[in-house]
């Protein structure tokens, strides 16, 4: 006789192990850096710092170059994101909706920036920028960071625009709306949450971008990540780097909260064709 | 109220002809169904009237005015899509009011008209609902209201009930027909559902490969299908191929006397016109299967060459599998060279097995 046992909820051990591993890889370093930012004395072999305090926050935040770099990083990220939206969104709409000669090649050329080792590409671009007197300028850094945003700002909106039901657009035309009105009132609101997600990814990606900003911007342009690297390299006080690092988390944390509250996680997934 | 004239319209997609030299006139307040299988060009034709496809040739006029050069937003047409195509970021009220807002009507007027059309489609009080909170049938009603509120001269319905279940489809098609007749709006309706076409249309246009096979009232299309294709497409039909010799059509198991010239012919008999009676001798065929639908029994009868025909009979214990039966053929239609050559009752029933093979039946 077969004895049926009541259904027991199965425990997903591999899932739990994977989640713990991932958490350890991400949270542990963040926890250590976060602790260092509020630590004044932490000597080996103590597991917990001997003295907590805000001394390094005061020292870091009283420096004009930190505020300068923060302002510059925010300006750069905003300008790059807006420019990227201006260039990429119409292009993405064209890729999604129109059929024109060379469409596929052009589409992949937008993504070519991510097909090669980034640093090699940056060196080649830097050589061109040198001749154009763009090295060490704000707009030089804007241009180089634009390249980095192309993938998010083309690939995600293309998938989103393709996902908007064409019948909805046709129904709007049928109701009396011209093509521009259809785009504004139907296509954009339908694609809106995912496009906001792409803009956020662009903003955060630009804010953290280091190699391009350093190679093209130095010495005149010092963004927050570049400043953090120079702090870590030039001063043997680990807390300065930790404070700057925590400061750098702020925009991505705000962006993440915004994404969760306003657009929902599914918008990201939709942007990647899910 | 408006009159639609489609004259010599063709549509070519690369090397494929979707619609070929199509001509049709739809009168004021008439509901015409475009009926055909997938790929027959009916939706393409509707989209050309709506302005979503540009004809390769021909003319489309509404009340005598050429509209072929006009974009969709300038045409006096309203389209209801199969997928409803409701805007999910707007509630029901905003969906319906969208077109009125584009026309810059006063706010009070917009509210009045939206509420009136919601009442018309039986959705009073649903204005604040989001579209995903509605059932499929309600969504389709909103889509209909969105078109009707703009008072189009021509209403275009593109398989509007295709995504709904059978019960809802039947109820909604009656409602749509009632509304259409109450408003007297000229309507072009695309469907591949023969029941829908028969139940709703003033006239049916049967299409095949972008061309018209037959235009006529439902009763005519059903009772006197102009071609074997129409005969096979509308309703259930037994199509039998054989030869007429001295006014007797013959195929294995079945023969019928019909007054037409000698030669090959296709005989079409509806299941309800193919009566059965218990065999007096060996029988013309043997019952293969009988399905009881409650109101009637649909009986598959196997002919001597293995071919099966369908017969619709009242419920009886006589219809059991394996029993030999004879046929009592009622109204028949005969075709030659793809054209109708005879319609009526057979002159005299015969049972001699002879002639060509039965090659095809529909149903």
Topology overview:
The complex is a heterodimer of chains A (274) and B (363).
Chain A (H helix, E strand, L loop, with lengths): L12 H25 L1 E3 L9 E2 L2 H7 L2 H34 L5 H9 L6 H14 L6 H26 L2 H9 L4 H30 L2 H7 L6 H11 L3 H26 L1 H7 L3
Antiparallel strand pairs in A: 1-2
Helix pairs in contact in A: 1-11, 2-11, 3-6, 3-8, 5-9, 6-8, 6-9, 7-8, 8-11, 8-12, 10-11
Chain B lengths: L3 E10 L2 E11 L4 E5 L6 H9 L6 E6 L2 E2 L10 E4 L11 H11 L4 H14 L15 H13 L5 E5 L7 H18 L2 E6 L2 H7 L2 E6 L2 E6 L1 H6 L4 H6 L4 E8 L2 E4 L2 E4 L5 E7 L4 E5 L6 E8 L4 E6 L5 E6 L10 E6 L1 E6 L2 E7 L3 E2 L13
Parallel strand pairs in B: 3-8, 3-9, 6-7, 7-8
Antiparallel strand pairs in B: 1-2, 1-4, 4-5, 9-10, 11-12, 11-14, 12-13, 13-22, 14-20, 15-19, 16-17, 16-19, 17-18, 20-21
Top keywords for this entry?
heterodimer; A: mainly alpha; MetI-like fold; two-stranded antiparallel ribbon; 12 helices; 2% strand; B: 363 residues; alpha+beta; Rossmann fold; OB fold (Dihydrolipoamide Acetyltransferase, E2P); 2 domains; seven-stranded antiparallel β-sheet; 8 helices; 36% strand
Structure description:
With 274 residues, chain A is mainly α. Chain A has a single domain (71-271), classed as MetI-like fold. Chain A is built from twelve helices and two strands; from the N terminus they run H-E-E-H-H-H-H-H-H-H-H-H-H-H. In chain A, strands 1-2 form a two-stranded antiparallel ribbon. The longest helix of chain A is centred in the N-terminal third of the chain and has 34 residues, at 64-97. Chain A is globular and about 70 Å long. The two termini of chain A are 47 Å apart. Chain B has two domains: 4-226, P-loop containing nucleotide triphosphate hydrolases (Rossmann fold, 3-Layer(aba) Sandwich), CATH 3.40.50; 229-350, Beta Barrel (OB fold (Dihydrolipoamide Acetyltransferase, E2P)). Helices cover 23% and strands 36% of the residues of chain B. Chain B has a seven-stranded antiparallel beta sheet with strand order 21-20-14-11-12-13-22. In chain B, strands 6-7-8-3-9-10 form a six-stranded mixed beta sheet, sandwiched between helices. In chain B, helix 3 packs across helix 4 (136-148). The longest helix of chain B has 18 residues, at 166-183. The two termini of chain B are 38 Å apart. Classes of the chains: A mainly alpha (274), B alpha+beta (363). The A-B interface holds A 165, 167-168, 170-178, 181, 185-186, 189-190, 192 and B 50-52, 71-73, 77-79, 81-83, 85-89, 98-99, 102-103, 143, 146-147, 150.
């Amino acid at each position: 006789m077969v004895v049926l046992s009541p259904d027991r909820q199965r425990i997903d051990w591999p899932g739990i192990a994977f989640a713990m591993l991932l958490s350890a890889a991400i949270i542990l370093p963040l926890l250590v850096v976060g602790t260092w930012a509020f630590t004044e004395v932490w000597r080996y072999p103590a597991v917990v710092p001997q003295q907590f305090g805000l001394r390094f926050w005061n020292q870091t935040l009283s420096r004009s170059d930190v505020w300068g770099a923060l302002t510059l990083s925010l300006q750069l990220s905003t300008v790059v994101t807006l420019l990227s939206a201006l260039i990429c969104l119409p292009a993405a709409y064209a890729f999604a909706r129109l059929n024109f000669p060379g469409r596929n090649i052009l589409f992949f050329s937008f993504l070519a920036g991510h097909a090669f080792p980034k640093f090699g590409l940056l060196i080649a671009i830097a050589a061109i920028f040198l001749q154009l007197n763009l090295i060490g300028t704000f707009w030089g850094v804007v241009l180089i960071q634009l390249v980095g945003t192309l993938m998010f700002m083309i690939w995600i909106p293309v998938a989103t625009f393709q996902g908007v039901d064409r019948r909805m657009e046709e129904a709007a035309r049928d109701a009396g709306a011209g093509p521009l009105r259809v785009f504004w009132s139907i296509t954009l609101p339908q694609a809106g949450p995912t496009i906001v997600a792409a803009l956020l990814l662009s903003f955060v990606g630009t804010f953290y971008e280091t190699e391009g900003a350093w190679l093209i911007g130095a010495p005149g342009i010092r963004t927050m990540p570049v400043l953090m690297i120079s702090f870590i390299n030039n001063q043997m006080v680990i807390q300065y780097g930790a404070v700057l690092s925590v400061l750098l988390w702020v925009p991505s944390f705000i962006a993440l909260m915004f994404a969760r509250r306003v657009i929902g996680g599914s918008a990201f997934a939709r942007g990647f064709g899910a | 109220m408006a009159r639609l004239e489609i004259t010599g319209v063709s549509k070519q997609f690369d090397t494929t002809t979707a619609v070929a030299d199509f001509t049709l006139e739809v009168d004021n307040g008439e509901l015409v169904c475009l009926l055909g299988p997938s790929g027959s060009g009916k939706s393409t034709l509707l989209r050309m009237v709506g302005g979503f496809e540009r004809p390769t040739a021909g003319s489309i006029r509404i009340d005598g005015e050429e509209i072929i050069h006009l974009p969709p937003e300038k045409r006096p047409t309203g389209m209801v899509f199969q997928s409803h195509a409701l805007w999910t970021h707007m509630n029901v009220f905003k969906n319906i009011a969208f077109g009125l807002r584009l026309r810059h009507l006063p706010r009070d007027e917009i509210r009045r008209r939206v509420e009136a059309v919601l009442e018309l489609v039986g959705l009073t009080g649903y204005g604040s609902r989001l579209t995903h909170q509605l059932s499929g049938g309600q969504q389709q009603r909103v889509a209909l209201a969105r078109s009707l509120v703009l008072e189009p001269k021509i209403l275009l319905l593109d398989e509007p009930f295709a995504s709904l279940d059978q019960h809802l489809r039947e109820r909604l098609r009656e409602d749509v027909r009632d509304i259409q007749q109450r408003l007297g709006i000229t309507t072009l309706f695309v469907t591949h559902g023969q029941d829908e076409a028969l139940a709703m249309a003033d006239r049916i246009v049967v299409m095949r490969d972008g061309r018209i096979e037959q235009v006529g009232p439902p009763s005519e299309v059903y009772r006197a299908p102009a071609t074997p294709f129409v005969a096979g497409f509308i309703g259930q039909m037994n199509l039998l191929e054989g030869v007429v010799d001295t006014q007797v059509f013959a195929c294995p198991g079945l023969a019928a006397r019909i007054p037409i010239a000698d030669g090959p012919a296709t005989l079409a008999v509806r299941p309800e016109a193919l009566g059965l009676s218990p065999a007096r001798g060996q029988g013309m065929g043997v019952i293969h299967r009988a399905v009881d639908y409650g109101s009637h029994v649909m009986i598959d009868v196997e002919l001597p060459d293995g071919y099966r025909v369908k017969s619709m009979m009242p419920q009886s214990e006589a219809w059991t599998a394996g029993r030999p039966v004879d046929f009592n053929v009622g109204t028949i239609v005969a075709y030659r060279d793809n054209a109708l050559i005879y319609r009526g009752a057979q002159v005299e029933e015969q049972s001699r097995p002879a002639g060509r093979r039965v090659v095809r039946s529909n149903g």
